[in-house]
Amino acid sequence: MPARHGRVWLALGLTTALATACNNLNGPQSHFANPVQLSSDLQTVSGVLQSPVFQSFAVIDTTTGSPAAVATRAGALLGAVPIAVPGTGTELYANAPRRLEALRTAARVLSPGLASVIPAPLLGTTFVWDVNTHAYVQDPNATPPAPANGVRIILYAIDPATSHILESPLAPVGYVDLVDNSSGNTNSLHVTVFGGTPGGTGNTTYADYTVSATVTGSPVVTGFNASATGFVSDGTRTLTFSSTFVATGLDTDHPDITIDGTWDLDNPVIHVVAHETVTSPDANHATITLDFSVTRGAETVSASGSIVVVVSPQTVSVDLAITVNGVPFAHIGGTNNGIIVRHADGTLLSGDETQAVADLFTLPAQLQSAVETLFNPARHLMGG
Known about the structure:
The chain has one domain. Mean pLDDT is 78; it is low at 1-25 and 72-92. Helices cover 20% and strands 39% of the residues. By secondary structure, the protein is α+β, with helices and mostly antiparallel strands. The chain starts with 7 loop residues before the first helix and ends with a helix. The protein is globular and about 70 Å long.
């Protein structure tokens, strides 16, 4: 399990010590069957998204010279969604107003039209890192060649602290093939992320999925609809997913975002369903409405409610109810360091229950971040 998860609860600022002890036994009270195992399973799901190859893939849109960093029409829209490997819940939730404003700004340069995800001059080319220019450059002698209807990017080990490619030594860790499957006015890109080297034997597939997107509105774009279906892997476990990303009201200063997704881990068997909306009256405020469930065997743990974010001065206010098989278990409420978690009957959670709730709170934000990462190649390439 990732070591950082042991610090998540502190990072979220959630505490049971700030509230006066109380007991309210008027309603039913459920319990986790095994809070330690629940926490472990939740961390396993997010851990699949943190392999070194996947982390290298996650930065190609911000790396100098990368073909996935060339902004075009629909790519500008997806480029407004920040790329990040999974972080803590508050880190990602607090970014919601900024993402909405970025989406509105990006919409100004978009317009509907015939789909063409990858510009013609890039088809069949391979990009490698040049330590002299500190940028990606085309390699005209790459063998084997990239797909004729796509582009290939070699991935390298990165510094986890800076997300920059390490040059001493320069260490290839894999590659990504981006293949254009567009048709009509629908942009479509098949993305495959491999470990190893092109043409090598026994290469591990870390991601294989298709992302499609359309924009609506003319002459000003008002909406955007994208979907991604496939799987990601850490080389041992596989997480199959189907996600949609919808943005509306992009011609206003208060656009809305809806993200829906299902995620299925093969070992252990875990089924995750997430529905999330982000609405905003202005660039300084956003309300995130969350409906999230994790099913393991006979137990389904759900979290639903709202998270209200203010950019400046930054505040994150939480009002979430947690149930186990439909029976109330706990409530998370409060603002910033005053966020409090209690059992539904008002009693304190145990240490193991507290950690499990922390992981449950964080996982939806991590999966949202992963969806944005999966849209990464398309967000800068999509368009004419």
